[in-house]
Design a protein that fits this description.
Layout lengths: L1 E7 L2 H13 L8 E6 L3 E4 L16 E3 L7 E3 L3 E7 L2 H4 L3 H18 L5 E3 L2 E7 L20 E12 L2 E9 L32 H15 L3
Parallel strand pairs: 1-2, 3-4
Antiparallel strand pairs: 2-6, 3-5, 6-10, 7-8, 8-9, 9-10
Length: about 220
């Protein structure tokens, strides 16, 4: 599978290129992973509700055809777009999402950070008081996000068994725009990056590690 480093690219033409790639796919089209970062932009998923966009200000809002709610993309964030034929790879969407999350967890582990899943809330989270703790996360039914910060968001699209859109890992970015939305539809959810939790990492290194983990975890 080819891993392509696109660098900093505008969101809208990248989305259009993903869609065109997927629409033109044939049975033997090789799978790819695109890694990039975007200038500041809010993106709204198909299930997105306008009340979760609080005060976008001068940052554009793009309505997309991915799953999920509103999120933010900006410089210092690694965005990964796997363009896969799931039928050829031999697994379904639920397992695909699990593998995406596992790739993020393993990438974070390479930087000494422990990532966690929260049931019913796709993405990866870290403990704010000790991001390097390996202790198992104790479920909190009253407030599942208590003491947690979201470090990676997921939003995928599957068309004719083929995937596009993907995930975003926060590396070293201006987190203020997340306060202008309810991230992923959760009011008050704190968002963090590797730099903020004490694991500063160059963007290129984080992108390379995440690309390697995705390549391995998304294997047939």
């Amino acid at each position: 599978m080819q891993v392509r480093m696109l660098g900093r690219v505008d969101y809208l033409p990248t989305w259009q290129a993903m869609q065109a790639f997927t629409d033109a796919r044939q049975a033997d089209t090789p799978d790819e992973i695109w890694l990039c970062e975007h200038p500041p932009v809010f993106t709204q998923g198909l299930a997105g509700r306008p009340e979760h966009v609080l005060a976008p200000g001068d940052i554009p809002l793009v309505a997309t055809n991915r799953g999920g709610q509103v999120t933010y993309h900006g410089p210092g964030q690694v965005v990964a777009y796997p363009l896969l034929d799931l039928r050829r790879r031999g697994y379904f969407v639920k397992e695909y999402v699990y593998r995406l999350e596992e790739a993020v967890i393993r990438a974070l582990a390479q930087f000494g950070v422990t990532g966690h899943r929260v049931r019913g809330a796709p993405g990866i989270y870290v403990r704010l008081d000790d991001p390097f703790s390996h202790d198992r996360l104790a479920p909190n039914p009253n407030d599942p996000f208590r003491g947690l910060g979201k470090i990676a968001a997921l939003g995928v699209k599957v068309s004719r068994h083929c995937t596009y859109h993907g995930l975003a890992l926060n590396v070293g970015m201006d987190l203020e725009p997340f306060s202008r939305i309810d991230p992923c539809g959760y009011a008050g959810l704190q968002t963090v990056d590797l730099s903020r939790i004490g694991a500063p990492t160059p963007w290129n290194e984080a992108a390379q590690v995440l690309g390697q983990k995705l390549n391995a975890l998304l294997a047939p």
